[in-house]
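Objective 1b of the project was to move from sequence-level analysis to a structural picture of ligand recognition. The entry below was assembled by the postdoctoral researcher (A.K.) and checked by the PI before modelling. It contains the amino acid sequence of the target and the SMILES of the bound compound, manganese (II) ion.
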Amino acid sequence: MMPEVKVMFKKLLLSLIMSFQAAMNIGRRGIHSLHTVNKVPKNLLEEGQNRVVEASLTLVREQAKLKGELVRAFGGAKATSALLGVPLGHNSSFLQGPAFAPPLIREAIWCGSTNSTTEEGVVLDDPRVLADVGDLPVQELRDCGIDDDRLMNIVSESVKLVMEQDPLRPLVLGGDHSISYPVVRAVSEKLGGPVDVLHLDAHPDIYDRFEGNKYSHASSFARIMEGGYARRLLQVGLRSINSEGREQGKRFGVEQYEMRTFSKDRHFLENLKLGEGVKGVYISIDVDCLDPAFAHGVSHFEPGGLSFRDVLNILHNLQGELVAADVVEFNPQRDTADGMTAMVAAKLVRELTAKMSK
Ligand SMILES: [Mn+2]
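Corresponding predicted holo structure:
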């Protein structure tokens, strides 16, 4: 190898390693050093963790309460979608950038380059249509050494706090796809029965475990189906599915619609009627359901996907009571410099809001 090529290669490798390390270090700010100090009493750490958990839930509780009170004071709303950010990226098997997504989605929702009316004429700057209860401080919780068993329960708890404030309904901003498990679980537990789940994604995310992680973003729908939180699970946009994905799909009775037959399935998928006889409909949108041509800012590029209009046709024509939703896996670290995919994720949120609020 020529010496200058060697230097270039070394530099490239170094920058790759550095960006990988930066991604791996999300949520590992300081507490990990505490584990090396054996003189720290265990109860000191536990009591501190409990205080931070309580403060985190108090923040969500009080924000939801205030927004609920405001909506009720205005009057006339039967359902108001409430944004709840869950900036969690460490259960991704690849890149962790989705931990940075919620504030960028919010910024794009209110971006001056477009107005605040959705395609079907719903006006978003009415607080009875779209409320915001802020972000669950996931990285702060992780920095206190909170493990995933507890963190997932905290995510569920925060969703329930939103649902307690009638007429607020949770519209969750991810985060990687692992958050859909604690969110759907909370929705089902709070409503007292299963929902029908419409899941748009390039991947079925139904591995029993992925790389040993039962909370992996590739396993969330296995947990949802095991828990009995969904009566029907329709997966749309699939184009990266292996034999385990198909077997798990069969095992749980999942209706899997693959891209290779989309032209045949289109009519059915653009005229869905869901949620009757159960507690309603939950929609989970992984931004990578879209072809990478429409959404560059995702961790897993999988060509051959849905167009943005395909997704809107499915959403606009769906009949059913939308009780909660999530938009996950937008990775700002992979977005174009002009933030194109942030606008894509924001428009999905805006159109879901229009579907949910009334
Ligand atoms: Mn995916």
